[in-house]
Design goal:
The protein is built from 17 helices and 20 strands. It is α+β, with helices and mostly antiparallel strands. The protein has four domains: 127 residues, 2-Layer Sandwich (Uridine Diphospho-n-acetylenolpyruvylglucosamine Reductase, domain 2), CATH 3.30.43; 112 residues, Uridine Diphospho-n-acetylenolpyruvylglucosamine Reductase, domain 3; 180 residues, Vanillyl-alcohol Oxidase, Chain A, domain 3 (3-Layer(aba) Sandwich), CATH 3.40.462.20; 56 residues, no CATH class. The strands form five sheets. Strands 15-12-14-13-17-18-16 form a seven-stranded antiparallel sheet. The chain has a five-stranded antiparallel sheet with strand order 5-6-10-8-9. β13 and β14 form a beta hairpin. The longest helix is centred in the N-terminal third of the chain and has 18 residues. GO terms for molecular function: FAD binding; oxidoreductase activity. Its cofactor is FAD.
Length: 528
């Protein structure tokens, strides 16, 4: 069903009356939205413009919601969702938004842990969402080992396409197949091939971007400063429509294993030893740990055969007790299924499943570890926080290898020289304030327990594990306050934060692309 701008205008006025927001400012906001919709209608088909007055709105909004905390009553929802199918739709939305004071949030897969791609903390915020799910084309050039990938394409779709095109081509990216390219690469993109080939962002060759002026730019026209910023700077500089990436070579056969050790089987000792061993293993070997009551799961991907892996493990980590019987030799594309689902029994087509019925609430904390956490601390954490059935997991991802050999300033992602990254997850299914407070208190409590042993001055947090506990933006004049943004920004980006702000000042000085944790323009007084 489509709705004329006039009918939508009446609908919005009714909402304002029901909300008691019959002030002149709300009337002005409604007028801006009405004008914004009229502007969109000149160049975008009505079927692609979804408002609260259309039957399609709720289904589209929920299609990429991965955290039910941000669709609870009281959460600000977009006044419009534009389901772009071509670059011109994105350009029109940006230009109309600027003209009529409607800010844009861009959503590719909706995996932002704090929902900033489709929701706002400010109940009075008026914003539109640009949904890029249909900008998902994948073009693979196997001969050149390159690919163009739309921001709306999922990692699973790329992995599936690579498996069909060439058994020895891969791309270093994350384990969750429903994560989409746009958000993943804009934050860096860590995955099981990072120790061998670096982050996703380290393998970007070009990109197509719509900037704050509505211009369509590529690497040669955007300049190297903006090209640097979009590869890990968190998506504050424009709308990236597609990415040209370097594909990497992998053997036709790789090896995976999953070994479970319980707490009464020396799991704590093994985790303690893993901290020094895993980052120093050969680059071809990625060994993750998932810690959850009552066990620790050691999950590996090795770019080689089982026999060689068994010899490496016997020499470097004999206490784990890995044998040839633990191995499964499979293709690389099958390994992406194993890393996510802990089984090779699922068909490759599971990588294409984009269906999403949000059914859980989520809060995540993350950090980086420079020196191994002592055994007594792991014992304390386990006894205090992980000793109840059903407690959420702590995930440990090793760095080292290629990660440590790339300069922290090569891309905005600066956390190159740590032993490993850890994430503490809390997810729950029951609704209500009591459950929310209990679960969020749990994850914050675990993180506080870890505080003496993780990064400090500042804390080192991966922007793709966004955490609003770190701080949120405020305004200084009509742009985001640089000093307030530094509170959270230097935790994500360290010394790269100021450079990102300088790029923002250059490409979006009026701060059009703005959210609760967007990069601010660098003030003139802060320039060197």
């Amino acid at each position: 069903m489509t709705t004329t701008p006039r009918i939508l205008h009446l609908f919005l006025l009714i909402l304002c009356v029901l909300s008691g927001q019959t002030t002149s400012s709300s009337s002005s906001a409604s007028s801006d939205i009405d004008a914004f919709l009229g502007c969109l209608s000149a160049d975008i088909p009505p079927r692609l413009v979804h408002t609260p007055a259309t039957n399609s709105y709720n289904a589209l909004l929920l299609s990429s919601v991965r955290n039910l905390r941000y669709v609870l009553p009281g959460t600000a929802r977009p006044v419009v969702i534009v389901a772009a199918t071509e670059p011109a739709h994105v350009q029109t939305t940006v230009l109309c938004g600027r003209r009529h004071s409607v800010r844009i949030r861009t959503r590719s897969g909706g995996h932002d842990y704090e929902g900033l791609s489709y929701a706002s903390l400010d109940p009075g915020q008026r914003f539109a969402v640009l949904d890029l799910a249909e900008l998902r084309a994948i073009h693979i050039d196997a001969a050149r080992a390159e690919a163009w990938v739309g921001s709306g394409a999922s990692l699973g779709e790329l992995y599936y396409a690579l498996g069909a095109a060439n058994r020895t081509l891969a791309f270093p990216a994350g384990s969750c197949p429903t994560v989409c390219f746009g958000g993943h690469l804009s934050g860096g993109g860590f995955g099981s091939l990072a120790r061998k080939y670096g982050l996703s962002a380290d393998n970007v060759l070009d990109a197509v971007v719509v900037d704050a002026q509505g211009r369509l730019l590529n690497r040669s026209t955007m300049g190297e400063d903006l090209f640097w910023a979009i590869r890990g700077g968190g998506g504050s500089f424009g709308v990236v429509l597609s990415w040209k990436v370097r594909l990497v070579r992998v053997p036709e056969t790789v090896t995976v294993f999953g070994i479970r050790r319980f707490r009464n089987q020396s799991a704590v000792d093994l985790i303690t030893r893993w901290q020094d061993i895993a980052p120093a293993l050969p680059r071809d070997l990625y060994l993750r740990v998932l810690v959850q009551n009552p066990q620790a799961d050691f999950v590996a991907l090795f770019l080689g055969r089982c026999g060689r892996l068994a010899r490496i493990m016997q020499r470097r980590f004999p206490d784990l007790g890995m044998t040839r019987a633990d191995c499964q030799e499979i293709s690389w594309v099958q390994s992406t299924i194993f890393i996510e689902f802990f089984t090779t029994a699922k068909p490759l087509e599971v990588l294409l499943d984009r269906s999403n019925k949000p059914d859980y609430y989520l809060k995540v904390k993350s950090d980086h570890v420079q020196e191994a956490i002592p055994r007594h601390a792991w014992e304390s954490i386990w006894a205090k926080w992980l000793d109840e059935p059903g407690t959420p997991p702590i995930m440990l991802d090793p760095y080292g290898g290629r990660m440590g050999s790339i300069s922290p300033s090569a891309t905005p992602f600066p956390h190159r020289n740590y032993l490993y990254q850890l994430q503490v997850y809390s997810f729950w299914f029951e609704n209500g304030t009591e459950a929310l407070e209990k679960r969020i208190s749990w994850v914050r409590g675990v993180h506080e327990e870890l505080e003496p042993y993780v990064s400090r001055n500042p804390r080192a947090v991966y922007v793709n594990y966004r955490d609003l506990d770190l701080g949120t933006n405020g305004l200084e004049g009509n742009v985001t306050s640089y000093e307030k943004a530094r509170v959270w920004g230097e935790k994500y980006f360290k010394g790269n934060f100021k450079r990102l702000a300088a790029v923002k000042r250059k490409v979006d000085p009026h701060d059009f692309f703005r959210n609760e944790q967007s990069i601010p323009p660098l003030p003139a007084a802060a320039k060197e």
